[in-house]
Amino acid sequence: QVQLVESGGGLVQSGGSLRLSCAVSGNIFIVYTMAWYRQAPGKQRELVADITSRGRTNYADSVKGRFTISRDNAKNTVYLQMNSLKVEDTAVYYCNADGLLVTDEDKIDFDCWGQGTQVTVSS
After folding, report:
1. Contacts of 14 (CB under 8 A, 6+ apart)
2. Are 9 and 20 in contact (CB under 8 A)?
3. pLDDT of 67-93, one tens digit each?
4. Would you state the pLDDT for residue 55?
5. Cα–Cα distance between 118 and 41 in angstroms, integer?
6. Which of 28, 73, 88, 104 is found 20 to 30 A from 12 (Cα to Cα)?
7. Among 114, 122, 118, CA closest to 39
């Protein structure tokens, strides 16, 4: 079993900052890519940023220069520092991770999602 637990969402004024965290727990052998997605009301879920186990990052054009993704491999935790927040950043933010978990007999792939955390940016 693998669990992703997110924290750090909330209400902030336009121009403000928030930091999201997501911890992956379970019988983890290795976590490959960790990512943040978001879904606004009436819209499809979209990739915000992702980071590989070696630290290579990728960002949506809409957040480049404002958001920073990072990870702590020892803690299997990914962070999203969000600065200069805009009203259009309002959404439920979801953490995603893939990798290998250990079972009694083998290692198997996992690709799991967190429960989501609400980020609301007011004008």
Report:
1. 85, 86, 87, 121, 122, 123
2. yes
3. 999 999 999 999 999 999 999 999 999
4. 96
5. 11
6. 73
7. 118
